[in-house]
Amino acid sequence: MTETNIPANPRKSPWKDSAVTNDPLLVGLDIGSTNIKAVVFEADGRIVARASQKTPTHFPRPGWAYYDPGELWQTTAAALRAATAQVENPARIASVGVASVGETGVLLDAQGQPLYEMIAWYDSRSEAQGSRLAQLLGAERVYATTGLTPQAIFSLCKLAWIQENAPEQFARAVRWLHVADYITWKLCGEAATDYSVASRTMALDLANRSWAVDLIRDAGINPALFAPLAQGGTPLARVTAAAAAETGLPPQAHVAVGGHDHLCGALAIGAATPGTLLDSVGTAEAVLLTIDKPLAGERVAEQGYEQGAHVVDGYYGMGAYRTAGICIDWFRQIAGSVDYATLTAEAEAAPVGSLGVRFVPQMRLPHSPSNDPRARGVFIGLSTDVTRGMMFRAILEGLSFETRNVLEPLLRFSGYERPGEIFVIGGVSRNRLFVEIKAAILNQALTVAGIEEEVAAGAALLGGLGAGIYPSAAAASAAHNVTRTIIVPDPALAERYDAIFRNVYQGIYAATRPLHHANAALL
User: Fold this and answer.
1) N or C: which terminal CB in the chain sees fewer CB atoms within 10 Å?
2) CATH for 324-408+491-521 (3.30.420.40, 3.40.30.10, 3.40.50.150, 2.60.40.10)
3) CA distance 245 to 253
4) The predicted structure's pLDDT at residue 203
5) pTM of the complete model
6) How far apart are CA 464 and CA 381, in angstroms?
7) CB under 8 Å to 29, separation ≥6 — which residues?
8) CATH of region 24-263
9) pLDDT score for 427
């Protein structure tokens, strides 16, 4: 590959002359923090085949985590081979789309070779760069332009870290590709970044949907490193012969621009209209409210609420905390790796309110509304009467209290008294007890979409858009047969949890904040 193979602009027109099968299959890739999933769908959303591989992650020291680019691609290819091997006639596969985490990326040289490891989205090594860029660029300017407050996790801070700590490699770089971009490029040889992934860079001019060239330059980074921007679902190219040989995909399959995992999940279940709330609960939890224009106001930024462009038209406001599913996995491990079903059964048998045990899930990185990088997780109310099941129920309750804690200010900023509908997706949402607790704490009915692998499904829809299988994003979403289960809150539970939230939970952070700060000073 030479530098000229990295295009100035992605192709904009679909393949009107392409021989898309009348009975197409669509592949969706979900490149997540924990697993890499390859799922083959019928055009109506039925799953034909799937395969999953653990995301190969390296932890060289506390606070650091990274992916090896070649290893990540090989693991993705292995998942694709395993999925396509289950398909009776792989030639039916008409398209591929990729969804991924948003902030992680890789630098490539002029020959397309990776120059440095892919720093994981939650890696904290670039905290100094985040602080420096906040001062250099001005936090107010950054938020007004990008909808983000300067934080270590965002791509611009990761680039600044690599520039300072691996200057020789950085000097040879000609392109920065995010995870979804990189896998898409490996599949078809064309590079592009969609607006939803670009929203996690701290380098996107959100209102104008363009790279914030002046801001990037002022950060000391060459804006030319960033790939061309395109709407998710924009067609790129067909699967290359080399990628077909590695993955089992047919070389005639079309590849389209992908998107950010949470937003792809929203597309798959139809949660992309203004006023609709998506509660995406995975390794992290994202509470995304679809809005028709970016939010303004100093308090939005001060409290750490983030904004971005949707994978389809429109925008979103988001409150997120980084340790939802991680809290559950963490407790399971320290409890002796007991299975989830056992923990859930014990939690269900525990009393409402967990015998006074409260859990605050601020286990990693700052999040809204406190936006305090020194905050840490807390258990209070422990006694010798407390059982493992009570502690696990306290975790489920704490995660749900934190969702409400994140949501209420976001609604006020957006001008909504209540969301029109709340969709809950993600692996944890399949825990009925958890969803019932969350419905009671939010005191609003929750819609659990009856769809498996919703993130991969959204990616597959984007691939189908690029291949011309669907005429529009709305038609793509409507084509998937998604059943809905409505979880209605129990009024008595809602009243009990409301009292706990207002009288206890909201005061825990304020009460423990001085201790967090004092403790951090002693580390």
Assistant:
1) C
2) 3.30.420.40
3) 13
4) 98
5) 0.82
6) 51
7) 36, 37, 38, 39, 76, 79, 80, 96, 97, 98, 99, 100, 183, 258, 456, 459
8) 3.30.420.40
9) 75
